[in-house]
């Protein structure tokens, strides 16, 4: 009688969730070849092809989609069998910079929750500097922040390019004060934008100061001002008018994951977190 192996089912679930053998390998802390072998073993046991792989995408077959809810149910039952019917979940406290979160935040939390039933998530959104300070003070297990200053260490998740985003109808003439929509200090992106304008000799005024990136983007969408944003974060309806208006380059910055956890469950969750973030960014 054929028997399902938990490791192969877990690998299948990660490939299905992350839509990538590479990201699944990162989440498992193994190699892409090892994940492929696990999938081959699982397909041999069930006697069906579960995954289709092409140079550009990884998708489930019809049999794979049908097998997916059964695989999830099996892993849930497996976790309960190991930890009891009502395990006391561990808490993972995570800080995320508002300028680093972007549209990936919702799928990121959804997938992390689905793959880490043994963890209770505590997520704080704020400024990179404040998240980094809380992390250094031991208040957070891990942070996803923009690399600032001479800070070293951490794991690179992506590199964001910045631009000056506004609506097509936004009108500004050289010599006038440039209306800005920004976050309040100590926002690092605001500091970069202000320094660049001052260096270029361009007068500016803060027309809108928002409590979050969503509010800043809304102000730009409403035509109130121009907002310095990462291209990944700028919503549809905004365009980078910087080159056309002769505004200074804002450059790029790395989005980093910093962690100091040693618990195996938390470490596994953070591996999945990093792999998921990269997967969602690549898909976008």
Overview of this protein structure:
The chain has helices spanning about 5-20, 20-30, 30-45, 60-85, 100, 105-115, 130-135, 190-200, 215-220, 240-245, 265-284, and strands at about 50-55, 60, 90-95, 120-125, 140-145, 155-165, 180-185, 205-210, 225-230, 240, 250-260. The protein has about 280 residues and is α/β, with parallel strands linked by helices. The strands form 3 sheets. Strands 3, 4, 5, 6, 9, 10 and 11 form a 7-stranded mixed sheet that branches. Strands 1-2 form a two-stranded antiparallel sheet. Helix 1 crosses helix 4 (about 60-85), helix 2 packs across helix 3 and helix 6 runs antiparallel to helix 11.
Describe this protein with a few key phrases:
alpha/beta, 284 residues, two-stranded antiparallel sheet, single chain
SSE map:
Layout: H1 6-18, H2 21-28, H3 32-46, E1 51-53, E2 58-60, H4 62-83, E3 90-97, H5 98-101, H6 105-115, E4 119-126, H7 128-136, E5 142-146, E6 155-166, E7 178-183, H8 188-200, E8 204-210, H9 213-221, E9 227-230, E10 239-240, H10 242-245, E11 252-259, H11 264-283
Helix pairs in contact: 1-2, 1-3, 1-4, 2-3, 2-11, 6-11
Percentage of residues in helical conformation: 40-55%
Rg, nearest Å = 22 Å
Beta-strand percentage range: 15-25%
Given the structure, what is the number of helices?
11
Characterize the main sheet: 7 strands, mixed
């Amino acid at each position: 009688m054929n028997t399902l192996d938990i490791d192969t089912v877990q690998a299948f679930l990660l490939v299905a969730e992350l839509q990538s053998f590479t990201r699944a390998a990162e989440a498992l802390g193994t190699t892409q070849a090892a994940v492929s072998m696990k999938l081959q073993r699982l397909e041999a046991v069930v006697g069906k092809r579960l995954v289709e792989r092409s140079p550009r995408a990884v998708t489930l077959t019809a049999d794979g989609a049908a097998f997916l809810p059964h695989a999830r149910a099996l892993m849930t039952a497996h976790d309960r069998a190991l930890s009891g019917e009502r395990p006391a979940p561990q808490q993972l406290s995570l800080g995320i910079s508002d300028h680093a979160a972007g549209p990936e935040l919702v799928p990121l939390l959804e997938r992390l929750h689905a793959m880490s039933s043994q963890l209770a998530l505590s997520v704080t959104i704020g400024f990179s500097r404040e998240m980094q300070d809380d992390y250094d003070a031991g208040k957070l297990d891990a942070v996803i922040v923009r690399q600032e200053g001479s800070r070293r260490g951490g794991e690179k998740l992506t590199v964001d390019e910045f631009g000056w985003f506004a609506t097509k109808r936004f009108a500004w003439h050289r010599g006038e004060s440039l209306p800005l929509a920004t976050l309040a200090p100590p926002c690092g992106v605001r500091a970069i934008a202000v320094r660049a304008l001052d260096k270029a000799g361009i007068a500016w005024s803060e027309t809108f100061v928002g409590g979050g990136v969503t509010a800043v983007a809304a102000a730009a969408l409403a035509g109130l001002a121009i907002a310095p944003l990462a291209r990944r974060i700028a919503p549809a309806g905004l365009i980078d008018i910087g080159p056309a208006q002769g505004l200074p380059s804002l450059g790029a910055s790395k989005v980093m994951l910093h962690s100091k956890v040693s618990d195996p469950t938390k470490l596994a969750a953070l591996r999945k977190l990093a792999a998921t973030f990269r997967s969602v960014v690549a898909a976008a």
